[in-house]
Design goal:
The protein has helices at residues 2-23, 29-43, 53-72, 76-81, 83-109, 113-123, 128-138, 144-171, 177-212, 216-236, 241-252, 258-281, 286-291, 293-315, 321-330, 336-347, 353-375, 377-384, 411-422, 434-442, 455-460, 476-487, 502-506, 519-532, and strands at 404-407, 427-431, 447-449, 468-471, 495-499, 515-518. It is mainly alpha-helical and 533 residues long. The protein has two domains: 2-384, Na+/H+ antiporter like fold; 404-532, Rossmann fold, CATH 3.40.50.720. The chain has a six-stranded parallel β-sheet, with helices on both faces. α23 links the parallel β5 (495-499) and β6. α5 packs antiparallel against α14, α6 (113-123) packs antiparallel against α8 and α7 (128-138) runs antiparallel to α8 (144-171). The longest helix is centred in the middle third of the chain and has 36 residues, at 177-212.
Length: 533
């Protein structure tokens, strides 16, 4: 116990120092956690995460909570609306890349066919933990490429189940394939039925009782109970913890408590995800890296390149090239579930120790590269494919003149649109959240998908011939960036900018904007007027 506490204390100290340093250079904290794991492994003689099973199992719940919070965003109805992204794109991607990698593994590693199939399909999986965390953090989860990536990742998580079953079949000496498949089908039916019944008939009543207790501690404890219980139920029947958590999240997404639950669980999720990445770093064997460096490098480049090409070719048939390219870049790495597959295959004698270590290091290196790729994905896409105007949500030849442009379709933007409509003023809205775009479309509003901080988007909105542009977003940095872009046009643009307070107003003082509305001051004036009136 004392040894575990010392390891945790040292890991926390090293991770804090490393991330403080890396943040100065805008390097994601994920990298700091992975490096921390490598340092800790050599400090305490832990050559892999399995050296401490307790630490490993605790870390797994980082992915569990991540998948739960993702599930909160995707009701069953929402998942069905993404059936093409999940079930078609995901299936084709896994089968194509898995087949290519399986054939390559036989040649590259000289292993028998069973082992090659396991290696190939494990390499077809991408990193749900890293990709979804970064897409969530930067808001791109709702972009076109974010949705395509999410759909494929969700199918990959489901595909882990038959992949683990495949290892059991290959390693089994006595059980027949038909009996194993039958047992898995029965298990899946029982798990889904139980979770469906609980979600439909018991969950709302349970949460209503918890909320009526008016205790934040009881509320958080009840949510932890739901997440862990659903995860454990899935695990008991032979599935991954994260799949159970994802289904639990989807059940709760149908309730009115989802937003509060998500806010309360974010600290748990981020803390445990950090620990998960520490255990990933602990699996790096420096001696293997030195001995097989060029083989690992070739494998890394080959896997990521083939994966990206397959995904790009798959998507470019029905989405624009840029979105397909960004999706391919975002999920071309190999993921954390692959490590679990390799560990099971190694313990089942399907993969020998040296090949297992080469694969682990390759996976970890691909995961280390991923945050840098996602952080610079726009710049990389700019090199290969210029911004296009061929998506149904993007403004294309709008034909608007002498109109009002509203940046943002949040609560304030919706109120502005409502009043402009009552006044019969011509307007259009630019919004970067695809869900808000779809909300606007459902109301027959001219809401277009786009980042207003890009000059090309503003040009397509015919900003130079607009009567005015209203910047109605809550992000002060993005507001500043939009105003800088607007100031760069040769023709003066009539800007009306919403700020929260005097401090935010000062951030715009050097741009010489004529119309700045201080929300805090105006609301205060209105409240006092009503109070004294």
């Amino acid at each position: 116990m004392d040894n575990l506490l010392i390891i945790l204390l040292s890991a926390t100290f090293i991770a804090t120092l490393l991330n403080l340093f890396l943040k100065k250079y805008h390097i994601p904290t994920i990298i700091g956690y992975i490096f921390t794991g490598t340092i800790i492994a050599y400090m305490f003689g832990l050559n892999s995460a399995s050296s401490d099973e307790t630490l490993h199992h605790v870390a797994e719940f980082g992915i569990v909570f991540l998948m739960f919070t993702i599930g909160l965003e995707f009701s069953i109805e929402h998942l069905m609306s993404m059936k093409k992204e999940v079930f078609f794109n995901g299936l084709v991607q896994v089968m194509l890349t898995g087949g290519i990698f399986s054939l390559s593994a036989q040649y590259f590693f000289g292993v028998e066919q069973k082992s090659a199939i396991v290696i190939g399909f494990a390499l077809a999986l991408s990193s749900t933990a890293i990709v979804l965390k970064i897409l969530n953090d930067n808001g791109n989860i709702h972009s076109i490429y974010g949705r395509k990536a999410l759909g494929i990742l969700l199918f990959q998580d489901i595909a882990v189940i038959p992949l683990l079953l495949m290892i059991n079949i290959f390693a089994a000496k006595s059980s027949s394939i038909s009996s194993l498949l039958y047992e898995t089908f029965i298990s899946a039916f029982i798990v889904l039925s139980l979770l469906y019944i609980i979600g439909k008939y018991l969950l709302n009543h349970f949460l209503a009782k918890v909320v009526s207790a008016d205790s934040e501690e009881i509320f958080i404890a009840s949510i932890l109970l739901i997440v862990i219980a659903a995860s454990y139920l899935a695990h008991v029947f032979g599935f991954t913890y994260s799949l159970g958590a994802f289904i639990a999240g989807m059940m709760i997404s149908e309730t009115k408590y989802k937003h509060q639950i998500e806010a309360d669980l974010v600290p748990f999720r981020d803390l445990l995800l950090g620990l998960f990445f520490v255990t990933i770093g602990m699996q790096i064997d420096i001696s293997i890296v030195q001995e097989y460096f060029f083989q690992i490098l070739a494998l890394l480049i080959g896997v990521m390149l083939i994966k990206a090409i397959v995904i790009f070719v798959l998507l470019v048939t029905y989405v624009n090239k840029r979105a397909a390219f960004k999706t391919a870049l975002s999920i071309c790495q190999v993921g954390e579930f692959s490590l679990a597959v390799f560990a099971l295959a190694n313990s089942s004698s399907l993969i020998d120790e040296t090949i297992n270590q080469i694969l682990i290091v390759t996976v970890v290196f691909s995961m280390i590269l991923t945050p840098f790729i996602l952080k610079n994905i726009k710049n990389i896409a700019d090199i290969f494919i210029s911004e296009e105007c061929d998506n149904e949500h993007i403004i294309c030849s709008s034909g608007f003149n002498d109109h009002i442009i509203v940046c943002g379709y949040g609560k304030l933007g919706q109120e502005i649109v409502y009043r402009l409509k009552k006044m019969n003023v011509t307007y259009l809205v630019i919004e970067h959240d695809i869900n808000l775009v779809k909300l606007g479309e459902s109301r027959n509003e001219p809401v277009f998908f786009g980042n207003a901080a890009r000059k090309s988007i503003l040009t397509q909105a015919n900003v130079e011939n607009a009567k005015a542009i209203i910047v109605a977003i809550n992000n002060e940095k993005k507001s500043r960036l939009i105003c800088e872009i607007l100031s760069s046009f040769k023709k003066p643009i009539n800007m009306i900018v919403r700020v929260a307070d005097y401090e935010e107003k000062k951030l715009l003082s050097d741009l010489k904007i004529k119309h700045i509305v201080n929300e805090g001051r105006e609301v205060a004036k209105a409240l006092i007027k009503e109070a004294l009136g």
